[in-house]
Amino acid sequence: SADYVSSPLVLYTDRGDAYVVACDRSGRVNLYDGATGGMALCPSLDLGARIDSTPAAFGNYLVVGTTGKAPDGSETTPQIYCIKVE
After folding, report:
1. SS3 for the chain, per residue?
2. Are 79 and 27 in contact (CB under 8 A)?
3. Under a CB-based contact definition with an 8 Å cutoff, are residues 36 and 82 in contact?
4. What is the pLDDT of residues 14-68, one digit of tens each?
5. Which among 4, 47, 5 has a CA at the least distance from the CA of 27?
6. Beta-carbon neighbour count of residue 15 at 10 Å?
7. Cα separations (Å) of 47 from 6, 17, 25?
């Protein structure tokens, strides 16, 4: 498991569902069910590069930036992702 340097946040969908979002340094965006604390139905998304910053949320969208460093130490292009959570 990878370590975390970004802060978690809570995202609310249009349906009122709450998810705790935690991004780790291996490049995974992890979703936890805000009501139970357990993993969400789609628990993680691998972005392929280290995430060091806290994501932003607006409505049911996440904005996540990667550093350009892959988990294996190789260089990648830094990216900014917009992810819709439904």
Report:
1. CCCCCCCCEEEECCCCCEEEEEECCCCEEEEEECCCCCEEEEEEEECCCCCCCCCEEECCEEEEECCCECCCCCECCCCEEEEECC
2. no
3. no
4. 888 899 999 999 999 999 998 888 887 676 899 999 999 999 999 889 999 999 8
5. 47
6. 7
7. 15, 23, 10
Residue 75, token pair as written in the block: 């260089």
Which pLDDT belongs to residue 21?
A: 93
Residue 10: predicted pLDDT: 92
Residue listed under structure tokens 């628990």: 43
- Which sign, positive or negative, has the C-alpha torsion 38, 20, 16, 60? negative
